[in-house]
Amino acid sequence: MEPERTFLEYLTHISENVSPINFLLIYDNIGRFFEGALVTLQLTFLALLVGGLIAVPLAIARANRKPFFSPAIRIYTYIFCGTPLLVQVYLFYFGLGQFEAVRTSFLWDPILSSPWWCVMIAFTLNTAAYTTEFLRGAIETTPRGEIEAAKACGMSSFTRMRLVVLPNAFRRALPAYSNEVIFTLHGSVIASTVTLQDLLGVGRWLNGRYYLAYEGFLTAMVFYMAIVFLISILFKLAEKRFLGHLRPRIETKPSKVAAPA
């Protein structure tokens, strides 16, 4: 107990006499920030997972220029990419409840009346729209030589898409998708505006309860920075693993051999 008491005494001394930041209050409520981080990570990665599953068939339909599906998907992506995520969350959380048909439907009580589900649906549809667009671009820019080689091997269009086009597109879309993951994580702060206790929500709670100016926001910022750092490291490792063959190779000049006398 002595080291812990010494540490708390040190925090108290720093908070009261040295630093304008109250580290003691942050330490006492650090568990709430970990709970908020868990909510943030759940919303972010579940939305990315479901949104990614939705985006793959939509991107294939957009790349293949299907007469009916391609224009409909383009309208969907334009709506969700062209409007702020905050507006989309508000429309799901506040807007749907204005309709009597929605309030009396079987989806209201378990799903649409819950702030968690409304945020989850908005995040999923938003990230699916962005992922559809850059995955479509990756599919359309697949090298023609690989497709022609697959045709020469007798592969059907489905087999070519499954074994050649999609793996190639996924690899080349990694840098863009890493940005999408980070943007979705940053956008998750909107969840705190509809009563969810995510990282930013906990920071607001801490500042409001103890009449603080920035301790809660600074703590949330450190958590976000740590999560983004881990995501960046994981994607750098993935890019090194799957895109290593695309990096330019350094040619070594042959060493000069002295001519025999």
UniProtKB/TrEMBL annotation:
Keyword list, A-Z: Cell inner membrane, Cell membrane, Membrane, Plasmid, Transmembrane, Transmembrane helix, Transport
Main location: membrane
InterPro entries for the chain: AA_ABC_transptr_permease_3TM, ArtM/GltK/GlnP/TcyL/YhdX-like, MetI-like, MetI-like_sf
GO molecular function term, any single one: transmembrane transporter activity
GO biological process, one term: amino acid transport
Gene3D superfamilies reported in the protein's UniProt record: MetI-like (1.10.3720.10)
Membrane spanning residue stretches: 43-63, 75-94, 114-135, 181-200, 212-235
Similarity section: Belongs to the binding-protein-dependent transport system permease family. HisMQ subfamily.
Protein name: ABC transporter permease
Upper lineage: Bacteria, Pseudomonadati, Pseudomonadota, Alphaproteobacteria, Rhodobacterales
